[in-house]
Give the backbone structure.
Amino acid sequence: MQNLQSKRFVIRQSLIGKNQVIEVTFKNGKQVTYNHDEVYEVMKSKLDTMNCFIKYKSYTSSTSVPVSVRELMS
């Protein structure tokens, strides 16, 4: 499977279970790579209560990676 390129950190319901690797390049030039499913498992309990994830089935951040999953980034 090809890595997904993005300009923001993203967790999408449609990507769960696909073992997708996502490469992010933020506006400040910082780059991170992460496994979508690993990050989702860590954030799952929080995401299930967030309005954006319930309504739009996704969570994004255009400026940084959530603190709870920074250790999973490469």
